[in-house]
Write a structure and sequence with these properties.
With 472 residues, the chain is of the alpha/beta class. It contains 17 helices and 17 strands. Helix 3 links the parallel strand 4 and strand 5. The N terminus is likely disordered.
Length: 472
């Protein structure tokens, strides 16, 4: 870092920010996490989650031990953006002891596996491939008996990748209904907890219903958390954990965001039937379906952020971690990050220069225009707008990066974007107004033209987003 403070070496600062981000992603590699969690001791399968992670309902204590001689089959049911890499970790550990399984992964995220069938499905809006994946996993779950052990591998994106629309004698919903409801929920500004509350009640697999399908088999769920606070009922909509939410809660979310009349009529009709007591709700705490279920979180945003902190310090930055609970409108949170950066540059607090402020979480975007982008690119664009209004003395010393750890920010090819004064100057030279692009949620086209996108490709993991402010 010597000699860099106060210079305009923006490319070098962006390179530092990218290296810090990539170190965080590497720390939560799903294959490595699974291999560090599972081990074989003779005929015993030992489950020992990494330090710093937590166990969920049915997973209390330091871990668990299973006598493999007591089981006829060991099966894998994996779903989420990290499904293939998590499943590969299980194959590494169990080898010939593994009987088979299914891994449902986002299209473009597939990797070859030996004993486990890989199925690609759609995200964030499910399609027929998502239905096929759900059917395959449900079939495997329902065939499991009392002498079978299921390893359920859950990661972010699992809600969309397993689409099993509710259907019963009273009627149900179609995939098209669920697709339309998902689009409206994504566009209205609902957060991931609210979205998943609705998803759980439109599904035959979520909200503990997969655990019910697996019973009476024993099951171990290893979870890579992409949810703020690692709330298990929200990660992939909690397929193997009790669901405390109700039909009425799901209906209330549609009402609160005023989208009852925007979603297909079958959706509120189903929720009203449930709220009226005509349909069984999702399995609740204490349900017998969970007696032989153990849930463990093996990776999270916090684990990634602490790795980023270590990398920043190794690069000579005085660093501060602010936690992994940042949520709300992306453009509003960006202003807060800008304020912290300016304070650090001008007053040396909360860190002095060279400094790095790190945080994580998952923001939302309320769609106002017809542009292309994602929540991280929107945050970077809002930071850039704020930068244009700041004193050049302090603005010239800041670099902001917001990126998704899965390498995929919204329906784009980028993980996120950088914001600094050089990028702002490029936009001015090109005659681009960042405010106009922000107004129509068109962050991708803006950064694609000025060179501010971070493209990592699919990372194989998913633990929410990270934000970094570097102060030179």
């Amino acid at each position: 870092m010597e000699g860099r403070e106060g210079t305009k070496d923006y490319a070098a600062t962006r390179a530092d920010a990218e290296a810090i981000f990539r170190a965080a992603v590497a720390k939560v590699d799903p294959r490595a996490l699974v291999r560090s969690t599972l081990s074989i001791d003779g005929a015993r399968l030992v489950v020992r989650p990494p330090a710093g992670t937590t166990a969920g309902p049915g997973g209390e204590g330091a871990g668990a031990v299973y006598d493999l001689d007591g089981f006829d089959r060991v099966l894998v049911l994996a779903f989420g953006k990290a499904a293939c890499r998590m499943a590969a970790g299980v194959e590494d550990v169990l080898g010939d002891r593994l009987s088979g399984g299914v891994a449902a992964v986002k299209k473009g995220f597939a990797e070859p596996l030996g004993r486990i069938r890989v199925m690609e499905a759609a995200h964030p809006v499910p399609d027929e491939s998502s239905v096929e994946a759900a059917r395959a996993l449900l079939k495997l779950a329902r065939e499991a008996g009392p002498r079978d052990l299921a390893l359920v591998l859950v990661s972010g994106g699992g809600s969309a990748l397993l689409a099993a629309p509710w259907s019963d004698l009273l009627g149900g919903i179609t995939l098209a209904d669920k697709q339309a409801a998902t689009r409206e929920l994504l566009a209205c500004g609902a957060d991931i907890r609210e979205i998943n509350t609705v998803r759980r009640h439109l599904s035959s697999v979520k909200g503990g219903r997969l655990a019910a399908a697996l019973s009476p088999a024993s099951s171990i769920t290893l979870i890579l958390s992409d949810v703020i606070g690692d709330e298990l009922s929200s990660i992939a909509s909690g397929p193997t954990v009790p669901d405390a939410s109700t039909w009425q809660d799901a209906l209330g979310i549609l009402e609160r965001y005023r989208i009852v009349d925007k979603v297909p009529p079958a959706v509120p009709a189903l929720l009203r039937n449930g709220a009226g007591g005509m349909l069984a709700d999702t399995p609740k705490p204490g349900d017998p379906a969970f007696e032989k279920v153990r849930n463990f979180v093996i990776g999270s945003n916090r684990v990634a952020a602490l790795a980023a902190l270590d990398e920043a310090r190794a690069r000579g930055y005085g660093s501060l971690y602010l936690g992994s609970r940042f949520e709300g409108e992306a453009r509003e949170l960006a202003r807060a990050w800008l304020g912290m950066g300016v304070e650090a540059a001008s007053r040396g607090a909360p860190v002095g220069a060279p400094g790095c402020i790190i945080g994580g979480g998952e923001t939302t975007v309320t769609i106002r225009g017809e542009g292309l982008g994602g929540r991280n690119q929107e945050a970077a664009l809002a930071f850039l707008v704020g930068l244009s209004e700041s004193s050049p003395e302090w603005a010239s010393r800041l670099c902001f990066l917001s990126a998704g750890t899965d390498g995929n920010d919204g329906p784009t090819d980028a993980a996120g974007a950088f914001a600094d004064l050089e990028i702002l100057e490029r936009s001015r030279a090109a005659g681009l107004d960042p405010r106009a692009f922000l107004a129509r949620n068109d962050s991708w086209h803006f950064f694609d033209r000025v060179g501010g996108l971070l493209r990592t490709g699919p990372t194989g993991t998913n633990v929410c987003d990270l934000q970094l402010v570097l102060v030179r």
